[in-house]
Amino acid sequence: MMSNHVYKSIELTGSSPKGMEDAIEHAIAKAAESVRNLRWFEVTDTRGHIEDGKIAHWQVTLKAGFTLDDE
């Protein structure tokens, strides 16, 4: 049985020279250091930096949602 939850969302931007997935994982891991109860994420924007005709760096912006503590 699912209980009723209230979620709050924050916006994060992760970056990585390796790829989009690494940028997302880095952003979530960093947020998890200070935000409890992370539950979901949604990618809202993807950007990249090009050097010498090749992808040099990825930036991924996402919304991350977490449940608020019951009191």
What can you tell me about this protein's structure?
This protein has one helix at residues 20-32; strands spanning 7-16, 38-51, 54-67. The chain is an alpha+beta fold and 71 residues long. A 3-stranded antiparallel beta sheet has the order 1-3-2, covered by helices on one side. β2 (38-51) and β3 form a beta hairpin.
Primary descriptors:
elongated, 18% helix, 71 residues, alpha+beta, single chain
Write the layout of secondary structure elements.
Blueprint: E1 7-16, H1 20-32, E2 38-51, E3 54-67
Antiparallel strand pairs: 1-3, 2-3
Span between termini: 20 Å
| Order of neighbouring strands in the sheet with most strands | 1-3-2
* Model regions low in confidence, pLDDT < 50 over at least 5 residues: none
The secondary structure category is: alpha+beta
| Share of β-strand residues | over 45%
Cα radius of gyration in angstroms:
15 Å
Main sheet specs: 3 strands, antiparallel
E-strand count: 3
**Helix content, binned percent:** 10-25%
Q: Report the mean per-residue pLDDT as an integer.
A: 93
The tally of helices reads 1
- How would you spell out the order of helices and strands? EHEE
Shape: elongated
Please give a quick description of this structure.
The protein is of the alpha+beta class and 71 residues long. The model has no long low-confidence stretch (mean pLDDT 93).
